Amino acid sequence: HAADSRRTDLMTITRFVLNEQSKYPESRGDFTILLNHIVLGCKFVCSSVNKAGLAKLLGLAGETNVQGEDQKKLDVLSNEVFVKALTSSGKTCILVSEEDEEATFVKQSQCGKYIVVFDPLDGSSNIDCGVSIGTIFGIYLAKDKDNATLNDVLQPGSSMVAAGYCMYGSSCTLVLSTGSGVNGFTLDPSLGEFILTHPNIKIPNKGKIYSVNEGNAKHWDEPTTKFVENCKFPQDGSSPKSLRYIGSMVADVHRTLLYGGIFMYPGDKKSPNGKLRVLYEVFPMSFLMEQAGGQAFTGKQRALDIMPKNIHERSPVFLGSYEDVEQIKALYAASN
Ligand code: AHM
Ligand code: MG
């Protein structure tokens, strides 16, 4: 019965967020409007990613591009779509994108109170072989929307008001937290709507999977090396963990969130700050992990406590199941 009524009583992402926001009497629907524009961007990217695959295949089959137009690279195209959707929402004042060196300041007439940091198409090196890729975003509130400065963006991740990602995989899944838990929505292409399919996601307390680019092992520090050694040869009689690494953060984090385990991009001798960007990769994913009952750690501190000094800064990160992150924290504590 319950399943039957779910099938006819569709909880769209808009309805879900409207319900959530109605708990705040001061809410004027601004967040819902902003989110709708993010959702639009995700739908566009989803359809472009699918079409890009098709265009390639048709190209291989000798068909020519019907429009005969130059194909814009997908990450550039995705960025344009998000920037335009976000500015035209009228709800943003500053945008920070992985694709743009400088932050975008929205002109006065379209200015709103939210700041959005995002990676429009993360993992784009994976497109050509059909591996899952995604969009990552985080949202801050400006203190004073008419005089917002970079100081409103250079804030710890713990002061984000919402974060999420959209994964373009075998299905298109949007995972969102507005600070009271994590929920997952799947795009029903026939409706063009994201429907709540993963209510109240909680990450398992301990996992059986570790996820890291082991090709960098030569350069790792001692705690990371020990941790991974222990995943393979556990000293406490438990079974070794499985290794899963896609090399696409959204897909690796999505699996970690649902199945448990740990995802890491450590710092190493070559790149002491690792690879991933604080504002639009580390923060949103750490926010989601904590909201789902997991943890995120940098090797020195709670990831959400980083005080970023510039918008494209990087940080090492270890995130996932509570107990697994406890272990890496203990190894770092012992090495100091
Ligand atoms: P990108 O923003 O240039 O796409 O790079 C980020 C990606 C992440 O999705 C992924 O976790 C990481 O790079 C993989 O890096 P590596 O290939 O060094 O393992
Ligand atoms: Mg990226």
TrEMBL record:
Stored InterPro entries: FBPase_C_dom, FBPase_class-1, FBPase_N, FBPtase, Fructose_bisphosphatase_AS
Keyword line: Carbohydrate metabolism, Cytoplasm, Hydrolase, Magnesium, Metal-binding
Keyword Metal-binding recorded: yes
Chain segments annotated as transmembrane: none
Domain Fructose-1-6-bisphosphatase class 1 C-terminal: 203-332
GO molecular function, one term: metal ion binding
Single GO BP term: gluconeogenesis
Localization per Swiss-Prot or TrEMBL: Cytoplasm
EC number assigned by the record: 3.1.3.11
Every Fructose-1-6-bisphosphatase class I N-terminal domain range: 11-199
Gene3D superfamilies: 3.40.190.80, Fructose-1,6-Bisphosphatase, subunit A, domain 1 (3.30.540.10)
Requisite cofactors: Mg(2+)
Top-tier EC class: hydrolase
One cellular component term from this protein's GO annotations in UniProt: cytosol
SUPFAM superfamilies: Carbohydrate phosphatase
Catalytic activities: beta-D-fructose 1,6-bisphosphate + H2O = beta-D-fructose 6-phosphate + phosphate
PANTHER family: FRUCTOSE-1,6-BISPHOSPHATASE-RELATED, FRUCTOSE-BISPHOSPHATASE
Family statement: Belongs to the FBPase class 1 family.
Protein name according to UniProt: Fructose-1,6-bisphosphatase, cytosolic
Organism annotation: Senna tora
